[in-house]
Specification:
single chain; alpha+beta; 5-stranded antiparallel beta sheet; 3-stranded antiparallel beta sheet
Length: 132
């Protein structure tokens, strides 16, 4: 039993990129699907596919690397809020990751969105993780 599925999601991506794997498979959930879509939209992953296996489903993520140097597009994935210590922020207190070069993924009443979208919609929420 996994007590923190979002941390497991981030750890699987982090481990696969450090091992320079092309694909990683992760058990699916609605929050993980939304986070995967954000990572794809922001250009941190090459591609993804949701597959239904009859139970929970699987997310297959194709990781993105620099062609010449083989450096992963994701240099750091850091969990912000965790089950033991939730971190909530209002729209004006949302963190800026690397002065706007990275993103923070936030769970709001408008769904799972980036920190920039949350500021523009003027909503706060739980800061799930930082990506850069």
């Amino acid at each position: 039993m996994n007590t923190d599925p979002i941390a497991d999601f981030l750890t699987r991506i982090r481990n696969a990129s450090s091992a320079q794997l092309k694909m990683v498979e992760i058990p699916s959930s609605n929050v993980k699907k939304a986070m995967t879509q954000i990572l794809f939209d922001q250009g941190y992953i090459a591609n993804f596919k949701f597959e239904d296996d009859g139970k929970q489903g699987v997310i297959k993520i194709a990781l993105k690397y620099n062609q010449s140097t083989k450096v992963p597009a994701i240099t750091k994935l850091q969990r912000a809020s965790r089950p033991g210590l939730r971190k909530y922020s209002s729209s004006d207190e949302l963190p800026r990751v690397l002065n706007g070069l990275g993103i923070a993924i936030v769970s709001t009443s408008h769904g799972v969105i980036t920190d920039k979208e949350a500021r523009s919609k003027n909503v706060g929420g739980e800061v799930l993780c930082y990506v850069y």
